[in-house]
Amino acid sequence: MKLLVTGGCGFIGSAVVHRAIRLGWSVVNVDKLTYAGNLQSVAAAAQSGCYAFEKADICHAGAMKRVFHLHDPDAVMHLAAETHVDRSIDDPRRFVETNVLGTCILLQAALRHFSSLGPERRDKFRFMHISTDEVYGALGLEGRFSEKTSYAPRSPYAASKAGSDHLVRAWGETFGLPVLVTNCSNNYGPRQFPEKLIPLVILRAIAGEPIPVYGAGENIRDWLYVEDHAEALTEVLTRGSPGESYNIGGECEARNIDLVRLICAILNDMRPAGAPYGRLITMTVDRPGHDFRYAIDPGKTCAAFGWRPRHNLEEGLRATVKWYLENEAWWLPLMQRGDFGKRRGLRQ
Predict the structure, then answer these.
(1) What pTM was estimated for this model as a whole?
(2) Active site residues
(3) What is the chain's alpha carbon radius of gyration, rounded to the nearest angstrom?
């Protein structure tokens, strides 16, 4: 298996790269290296003789054509995307360009490559698109998203991912490209860019700085440990049925305020300070249009592949906190950038 991964220097992408290498696959990592892409996240994989890196933008048609021609992949996992909701409120056009136009250009390059393959390789080729539960909109206190839930995105980020999902399915229906789509719940774990909630809480806490929680902290998310997600993705890629969608969730729902308190409690145990870290929790102005609750029903994925998330929330958070405490060399340079920590996503 030679797997082309887009966005492989990002958070989920790097977890996929490492898992693919462990499975004995060859990996071609295509990444533009924006603010969230970090070569250090794949440094161990880069030592493998089964790894190649291409610094390239999925929005550049010529670059994508060259990458497919040069590396001749057997499958594609498309993870490259702009992902932060707050940033999408500040600059929605960038999200449309990367997530919608970029996906279109990548699909065209993949279709051209697919059409050039012999019958046996065409039968095995897959284009897999990794998306989010945010395309489904928001839930109340009851219910979970399934693969049959109607799309109702409520942020520029979610809308751009919904658009890319529709494009992928259209290339499957119209052109016969063997596509797979996955929609996942909120990921967490090692190597996540520090502006996201869980690493931000960890790093603000150990620095003794205020820990921001939007609104009243009542918003609920389903949390999925990134290594569990990477395992599910490789199962879907190798065993999924072309044209199908699969939801991947952690089955670990928590209110934001409870999540933050749990991280503080873990830090109290793992790195005690002079006072409990919970004292640093600070309620702040909420994000515009902040979706109340997301929850994934992963039943179809579990039944199809015998997969289930291996980590409950406390186990996953303990592993995550431990990683950040032990890997300051990875995250400190990111936090020292000039624009890091700026509040984003406030309606102008």
Answers:
(1) 0.96
(2) 133-134, 157
(3) 20
